[in-house]
Amino acid sequence: MTTVERNRLAIDGGAPVRDHPIVTTVPPTAADVAAAAAVLRSGRLGGPEHPETHRFEAELAAFGEVPHAVAVNSGTAAIHAILAGLGVGPGDEVIVPAHTFIASATPVLMVGAKPVVVDVDDSTYCIDPAAAAAEVTRRTKAIVAVHINGHPAPVDRLPSGIPVVSDACQAHGAALGGVPVAALGAAAAFSFWQDKLMTTGGEGGALLTADPAIAEAANLLRSHGLRQIPGSRDFHHPVLGYNYRLTGPQSAMGRSQLSRLPEMLAVRRRNARKLIEALDGIAGITPPVVRPGARHVFWKFVIAVDPEQFTVDVRGFMRALAAEGVPAAPRYPVALHKQPVLSSGRLAACPVAESLSSRLLTVALPATEQDDDVADVAEAVRKVATALRR
Ligand SMILES: *Cc1c(COP(=O)(O)O)cnc(C)c1O
Fold this sequence. Notes:
The chain has 2 domains: 152 residues, Aspartate Aminotransferase, domain 1 (Alpha-Beta Complex), CATH 3.90.1150; 228 residues, 3-Layer(aba) Sandwich (Aspartate Aminotransferase, domain 2), CATH 3.40.640. It has an 8-stranded mixed β-sheet with strand order 1-9-8-5-4-2-3-14. It has a 4-stranded antiparallel β-sheet with strand order 10-12-15-13, with helices on one face. The protein has a 3-stranded antiparallel β-sheet with strand order 7-6-11, with no helix packed on it. Helix content is 33%, strand content 15%. The chain has 11 helices and 15 strands. The site of pyridoxal-5'-phosphate has 14 residues, from helix 4. Its cofactor is pyridoxal 5'-phosphate. Keywords: Aminotransferase, Pyridoxal phosphate, Transferase.
């Protein structure tokens, strides 16, 4: 191939950089499936006191370095339970960042409180502490700190005296200054949805906390608000509850996945480091930035594409990359202050989140260790950036 042919983009009929898929999520292993199957065969499938769920909770608590873990059936349920456990309700305000998934904020509506949407930092894409401080009122009852993409939020710089909900749904194993995200703030929420850093078989979640009152409240809320009175077989329901229970087979798969999580994270982190290095110096492309002291786990590998430097917008860049065999997707193209469901909230000006919504691209991060995978992603980005430069 001549240089001209090699440089011709696949969208223009050239040969793609890569002709076989990149593995970005490790599918459940035989051990994961066997663990779930064993519980299915046992005949004891669910219920609030399932022994597999208790074991999973003990292992989660140890992993997060906190005394309490309550397994639930989604990350959204975990955030809802934390807010309820903190006593947040009607008339209260909760501060949330504008650049995140909708479920960081919808639980605020679920407890009847008002979401207050604030801007984020331009380099880590996490909540901007100054923007949060500017929106604190006497009604502020909590701040949701989202560890976006796996990068720990600046919980250490948030206004003091306000409980922090650590939204760790994208950040299993991340840490700030050596403190795991599970131990940052009043309590932390994790998601085990199919595409997150680990899964319980499609859906699942947990909240981790050092606060026994939050754990107790979550425990009640997850199972119909049912409290067993010692010596009585009657059902007592002192509070409004839900059914947020995780099942036995889900818990067993979660235990199996959790046991491999450190290894899976090590591969992601190594691949991310290599990819950051390989993308260094491509004009108009900003690889992920990691704050000193932060342990980033790279659930998503997000690059910023400077629209001024290319002949296409971020979607055009994405299509060219996909044609080269490297899947990509716009990262939160509609920020939270633009979401109709949150229009009853207080929506601060969010110029950074606004600008990110047309600049950020999630690029496939290989989840396995084959050196050419990372090299192919880097080469595809370089090829597209070079060909589409203004
Ligand atoms: C995935 C996610 C959630 C919700 O988790 P589910 O398990 O899908 O309910 C909440 N917040 C963030 C930041 C997420 O990425």
